[in-house]
Design a protein that fits this description.
129 residues, alpha+beta, Aspartate Aminotransferase, domain 1, six-stranded antiparallel sheet, YjbR
C-alpha cells in the first residue's frame, strides 16, 4: 500500500478527515472521525507505517501472526497496533480491513446522534430492530 492508497482508504470512510494536529511534529498525519483519531501515520516516512485502533484480543493475535504488526508506537499498546505497510507482505485488502475495523471502533464509541449523522452501518442495524 502506497501513501496515496493509505490516504484514499482512510478518507473514503464516511465523515473521515485528515489533520496535522501536532505543531512540534507537522509531518504526523491523523485521520479522524467525529474528532477522534482512527489512524495515525507519517505519509513521507520510510518505511511507511500506520497506527490503528484494535480490539485488544485481536491485537495480540495479529501481532503473533504477522511480524509487520507490532504494539502501537507511542500509543496505548493494548488498544493500538502499528502496521508496516512497505514490502507488500500484507495484502492491501487486509490492511483496508484493519483500517475499517479501527474506524468502526471509534465510531461505535461516538454519541448516537453522531453515529446517525455518519449513517454508520452498525447504527442502521440497530434502527431496523
Amino acid at each position: 500500500m502506497t501513501p496515496d492508497d493509505l490516504r484514499a482508504t482512510c478518507l473514503h470512510l464516511n465523515g473521515a478527515t485528515e489533520e496535522f494536529p501536532f505543531p512540534r511534529h507537522p509531518e504526523v498525519c491523523t485521520f479522524k472521525v467525529g474528532g477522534k483519531i482512527f489512524a495515525l501515520t507519517t505519509l513521507t516516512a520510510s518505511p511507511l507505517t500506520v497506527s490503528l485502533k484494535c480490539d485488544p484480543e485481536l491485537a495480540v493475535r495479529l501481532r503473533e501472526a504477522h511480524p509487520e504488526i507490532v504494539p502501537g508506537y507511542h500509543l496505548n499498546k493494548r488498544h493500538w497496533n502499528t502496521v508496516t505497510l512497505e514490502g507488500g507482505s500484507l495484502p492491501d485488502a487486509f490492511v483496508r480491513e484493519m483500517i475499517e475495523d479501527s474506524y468502526d471502533l471509534i465510531v461505535a464509541a461516538l454519541p448516537r446522534a453522531t453515529r446517525l449523522l455518519l449513517d454508520w452501518p452498525g447504527e442502521r442495524s440497530e434502527r431496523s430492530e
